[in-house]
């Protein structure tokens, strides 16, 4: 799997444009770049779109949670985003594991900034698209 196969700008879109996913048309592909300790029947992970990453809690059925590993590629089907003054968090309730790349983190992701406004790259995206269409 290559970086181009991850869904571009998925992390900011999940947090700011579609904070609740219910199995609709937008089912982004992201990579798990860190797996932290289990939390009861859940697992704390970090997901990346190749550019930005966000901490997430897997709240899927226990068999799905147990099968997830670092460097997995997953399709998000159902999720809820939570933005607070001190952190951003995704709660992933349904995922599909679609691939694995041992020892490989795609891109050079950085943590998405915390705040009420989307990152500048997401705000600038519509303007850039309009400029490209005009050319």
Briefly summarize what is shown:
The protein has 3 helices and 7 strands; from the N terminus they run αββββαβββα.
- Distance N to C terminus: 32 Å
Main β-sheet, in a few words? 5 strands, mixed, barrel
With strands numbered from the N-terminus, the spatial order across the biggest sheet is 2-3-4-6-5
Q: Tally the helices: what do you get?
A: 3
Structural class per helix/strand content? alpha+beta
Q: What proportion strand?
A: 35-45%
Q: Uncertain segments of ≥5 residues (pLDDT<50)?
A: 126-135
Average of pLDDT: 85
Count every beta strand, where a strand is a DSSP E run of 2 or more residues: 7
Which bin fits the share of residues in helices? 10-25%
Shape: globular
Order of helices and strands: HEEEEHEEEH
Question: Roughly how many Å is the radius of gyration?
Answer: 15 Å
Labels describing this entry:
135 residues; alpha+beta; 5-stranded mixed β-barrel; 3 helices; 7 strands; 21% helix; 41% strand; globular; disordered C terminus
Q: Can you walk through the features of this model?
A:
Helix content is 21%, strand content 41%. Strand 3 (42-48) and strand 4 (52-58) form a beta hairpin. Strands 2-3-4-6-5 form a five-stranded mixed beta barrel. It has 135 residues and is α+β, with helices and mostly antiparallel strands. The N and C termini lie far apart (32 Å). Residues 126-135 have low confidence and may be disordered.
């Amino acid at each position: 799997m290559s970086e181009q196969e991850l869904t571009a700008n998925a992390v900011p879109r999940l947090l700011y444009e579609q904070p609740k996913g219910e199995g609709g048309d937008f089912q982004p592909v992201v990579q798990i770049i860190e797996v932290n300790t289990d939390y009861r029947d859940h697992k704390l992970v970090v997901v990346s779109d190749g550019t930005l990453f966000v901490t997430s809690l897997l709240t899927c059925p226990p068999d799905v949670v147990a099968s997830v590993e670092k460097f997995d590629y997953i399709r998000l089907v159902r999720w809820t985003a939570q933005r607070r003054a001190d952190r951003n968090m995704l709660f992933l309730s349904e995922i599909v594991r679609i691939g694995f790349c041992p020892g490989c983190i795609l891109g050079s992701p950085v943590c998405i900034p915390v705040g009420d406004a989307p990152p500048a790259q997401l705000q600038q995206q519509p303007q850039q698209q309009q400029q490209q269409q005009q050319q």
